[in-house]
Amino acid sequence: MNPILEVEHLSISFTQYQTGMRQRELQVVHDLSLTIEAGSIVAVVGSSGSGKSLLAHGILGILPYNAHMAGMIRYQGKPLDPQLAGHLRGTEIVLVPQGVAYLDPLMKIGAQIRKGKKDKTALTRCRNVLNRYGLGPETENLYPFELSGGMARRVLISTAAVESPKLIVADEPTPGLDAAAAKRILTHFRELADDGAGVLLITHDLELALSVADRVTVIYAGETIENAAVTDFNNGKIYHPYTKALWNALPQNGFVPISGTQPYPGEIVSGCLFAPRCPDRTKDCQEKNIPYSPVGAGYVRCLNAKKGGIV
Amino acid sequence: MILEGKQLGFSYRHKGSFPVLQDVTLSLRSGERVGLIAPSGRGKTTLCKLLAGYEQPDHGQVLLDGKPLSRHRGFCPVQMIWQHPELAIDPLLQLKRTLQEAGPVEESTLHALQINPAWLNRFPSELSGGELQRFCIARVFQPGLRFLLCDEITAMLDQITQAQIWDFLIAEAQKRDLGMLVVSHNHHLLQRLCTRIIDLSI
């Protein structure tokens, strides 16, 4: 056991102005906990607005000025405060962003990967990393607009991998790619993990998460509600009703929708946030605070999962 | 009814060179749900744009019941739902006005798509992609709708929202006897939804 990153009871709120000078605190992320071991890929799955991108920004220390973070993030056992995050960001902790929009449109690819450095080692490392992802040296002289979608993603991974990072945060790295291209990109993440890095893969796509990750953490309305190994999904060892609903909504598993949407930040819901949509809710679910408790080798935030026990 | 694309050819710049589509022929009948699969950049979206009349083909023609679609006046019976709803909605209009763009929308449609009445007073930047996509879908359901072209319309959504939206579309397509073209990278999804699948790459 060698955790690269531990997140415990992370919460994030924003200060907003209402009318005039009146302010309010809008809590968006309530309670996120997860652990990433070296050499493993942990996927964070949730719908839009569940707070999964905020988690990434919180880890990197790039939340906007009006955001407040509470809870604990530890990197290799040390508290990851904004100073440390700023120091490690871009070298040991790297982000693979969503799309080509994150590249500087006026800077050639080579210079972006080298971060402007021109010395010999930087040049060789740049060549090597491009080569690793099947891009020739001519790519160095291209501008971002000259890349196809798939090439742009490989360049984005190159910018991250050139520094031999220990923790990679990938935010929706494959939307809009065809299956073959997505598979190739995901293989690159697997390689980085096999080299000893921890990978946090953020996605809305459960199918994608299951195809590449070792463990899956599901987020609903700003709370981690279940953590399970990928194999648990296939063996029916998932316990939270939302996780089950996600699984059953896959086209190959029945394609069954449940109704409703997740509650909005600021909407007041006591007890379990999923209770309004849950088929098995009880009176306790709507009143009590639901702990994120260990079940088997994972965690579940559901009263019924505990009551029902595991077989 | 039948929607046909005959020997369609199209290129974005330098008419004739760098063709996106070359000699593509397909037909879509009422009641059919046809899946369209191909790698990125093979012209799936372009084909939808031609069939819905957003672009005119360089070669070939688009026919609705044997007559050119471009001659149709009024609400176009062939409607396209786009991959990026945030780009298909006027950012300066409240959503209740976006919804009425093609005419009034039935209350039952809003209900079935789970559009929260509170969203109607908001602007597009205040809703998520999945919520906006529901509006894009609701506004095409006019009485004149006959063919629906769905260009990767749920790729950015979580599985439950995807299933919710397809559940609605399939029920509505059966009720109204619509012809549907479903573009997606997800083979499982197409197998679940479609009556036949066309692979544009072969």
Describe the structure.
The complex is a heterodimer of chains A (311) and B (202). Chain A has 311 residues and is an alpha/beta fold. Chain A has two domains: 3-92 and 163-308, 3-Layer(aba) Sandwich (Rossmann fold), CATH 3.40.50.300; 102-162. Chain A contains eleven helices and twelve strands. Chain A has helices at 52-60, 82-88, 109-114, 120-132, 149-161, 179-194, 206-212, 230-234, 241-248, 283-287, 303-308; strands spanning 3-17, 23-37, 41-45, 67-75, 78-79, 93-96, 167-171, 198-203, 215-220, 223-229, 293-295, 298-300. In chain A, strands 6-7-8-3-9-10-12-11 form an eight-stranded mixed beta sheet, with helices on both faces. A four-stranded antiparallel beta sheet of chain A has the order 2-1-4-5, with helices on one face. The longest helix of chain A has 16 residues, at 179-194. The model of chain A has no long low-confidence stretch (mean pLDDT 89). Chain B is an alpha/beta fold. Chain B has one domain: P-loop containing nucleotide triphosphate hydrolases (Rossmann fold). Chain B is built from six helices and nine strands. Chain B has a five-stranded parallel beta sheet, with helices on both faces. Chain B has a four-stranded antiparallel beta sheet with strand order 2-1-4-5, covered by helices on one side. The mean pLDDT of chain B is 91. Classes of the chains: A alpha/beta (311), B alpha/beta (202). The A-B interface holds A 45-49, 148-150, 175-182, 204-207, 245-247, 249-252, 255-261 and B 38-41, 83, 114, 116, 128-131, 152, 155-164, 166-167, 185-189, 191-193.
